[in-house]
Amino acid sequence: MNDLALFARRLLRNPKQVSAVAPSSRFLARAMAEGLGTASGPVVEFGPGTGSLTRAILAAGVDQRNLTAFELDADFVQRLRQEFPGATVHHLGADRAHEVMEPGVAAVVSGLPLLSMPGPVRESIVGSAFRILAPGAPYIQFTYGPKPPLPPESIERLGLRVEPGRKIWANLPPARVYRFYRA
Domain of 171: which CATH number? Predict the structure, then answer.
């Protein structure tokens, strides 16, 4: 089954969990993976779905053995494990990443639909990311909305700063990439 067919099937079965109309485009995926490469070290991906962002992370030069993914959907997990046998794919929520990962991660790349989640869940996910990120390392997130995927009060409560990236028009729908860092 190709990515679009699998994505559509999972969207119909669980629209709240998938929360997108199409997999991320290769243009958005490349923008999310900017700055990653062969010397990046360990990279974590939240919500890889069909692997659009995963492919871009690997194409940027990150070795599969340095990639760990967290995915809730069992069908996506199975597909990811088949396609990326060198990567570690956890069938586990991103909010629990700190339970299985050591601190020192070079970047967390997230395809999760943060804006569709309740505030405490969003903060738990981003908080977990910053428990494993190395000092100065980014949490990379995209959103379809006009504002960052975390409201100002959450950014302040978590002690973060945000850097908006460029708008990716060649995505359905268009998206903007944000990078969060410890303040």
Answer: 3.40.50.150
